[in-house]
Amino acid sequence: GTPLAILGGIGRAAQMGAIIKGGVHLETLGKVDTVVLDKTGTLTFGRPEVSHVLPAEGITADELLRAAATAEALSEHPLGKAIIAEAASHGVTPLPVSGFSYEPGRGIKASDAEGAIYVGNAAWMTANGVGAVPEEGAFVGTRVFIAREGRLLGHVVVEDKVRPEARQAVEKLRGMNIDVQLLTGDTAQVARRVAADLGITAVEAGLLPTEKLQRIKAIKASGRTVAMVGDGVNDAPALATASVGIAMGSGTEVAREKADIVLLGNDLMRFAETVHLARRTRKIIW
Ligand code: ADP
Ligand code: MG
C-alpha cells in the first residue's frame, strides 16, 4: 500500500492548491533537480492584450482586425482571445467562418466567404506562402501576422504581463538548488525579456510542441529528474513526457489531462511549495 507519509503529503498538497494524481508523482517531485517552465499562460497571465495594430499598405486597421477576428473566432489560444477583444473594442464583428484548423505553436487557418485566412507567427507565414516577415520589430511583444492567400494584410503586437508570483517562485526553486529553464514557442525577443524579468538564464525560444518534447527527453537522458509546468495544447506532449508534469489551473483540458499534478489556481508559489513538501515527505520515508 501507499505509505502514510505519502497519503499525508498528497492531502497537504491539496490543501496548498496542488492536486496530485498519485503517490508516485509526489515521490518523483521530491527528486526533481530541473524545472522547465512554459511562458505564455504559465509565467505570464496568458491574458495578452493587443498593444498595436499595424496594417499593411492599402489595408485599414478595421479590415485587418476583421480578418484576424474571423479566423480566431473558434480559437482557444490566448492570442486569439486578445485579437477578438481588440476587434470588439473597435466595433468590428467577425464574419461567418468555416474550416478552422490549429497548428500548435504556429498559428491557425480558417476561411470566410473570400477564402483562407492565416494568423500566426513568422514561420506560419512562410509555411503558407507569404514571403518572409520580420520576427522582431520596434515594439517588444508577440507579433501576430495576418494573411489572406499569400498576401500579408499586416500584423498586431500583443503584450502579456508576467505573473507577480512567478519571480518569487523561481527564486524559491533556485534556493532549493533546482535548475530553472524557460521553453517557449514565442520569439527570442519576447522570451529574453520575460526571462530577464524573472532572472532565468536558460532560455529557448521558437520551439514547436515536438521540440519542447525533445528538450524534455534530452534533459531526462542526461540523468536528471525534470518537472515541466505548462498550460497549453502545445505543452501536452512535454507534460506527458517529463518525469512529472504540472498543469496550471487555467490550462487547457488536454494539458490538465496529461499532467500528473494540476494546480488549483495559477499561483506558481504553490508549485514551489509543493516541491518543498515533496522533498520533506521523501526524507520521512527514506
Ligand atoms: P508558448 O510556448 O509561449 O506557450 P505557443 O507555443 O502557444 O507559446 O505559441 C507560439 C507562437 O505561435 C505564438 O507566440 C504565436 O506567434 C503563434 N500562435 C500560436 N497559436 C496562435 C493563434 N491561435 N493565433 C495566432 N498566433 C498563434
Ligand atoms: Mg503556454
Describe the 3D structure.
The chain is α/β, with parallel strands linked by helices and 286 residues long. The radius of gyration is 20 Å and the shape is elongated. It is built from 12 helices and 13 strands. The strands form 2 sheets. A 7-stranded mixed sheet has the order 1-13-12-11-2-9-10, with helices on both faces. Strands 3-8-7-6-5-4 form a 6-stranded antiparallel sheet. A hairpin with a 2-residue loop joins strand 5 (107-112) and strand 6 (115-120). Bound molecules: adenosine-5'-diphosphate and magnesium ion (MG). Adenosine-5'-diphosphate binds at residues 38-41, 72, 75, 77, 79-80, 105-108, 119-121, 142, 144, 184-186, 232, 234.
Beta-sheet strand percentage?
15-25%
Runs with pLDDT <50, length 5+? none
Mean pLDDT: 95
Report Rg: 20 Å
Number of domains: 2
Largest sheet: 7 strands, mixed
CATH topology term of the largest domain: Rossmann fold
User: How far do the termini sit from each other?
Assistant: 16 Å
Along the chain, the helix and strand elements come as HEHEHEHHEEEHEEHEHEHEHEHEH
Key traits:
286 residues; alpha/beta; Rossmann fold; Calcium-transporting ATPase, cytoplasmic domain N; 7-stranded mixed β-sheet; 6-stranded antiparallel β-sheet; elongated; binds adenosine-5'-diphosphate; binds magnesium ion; P-type Zn(2+) transporter
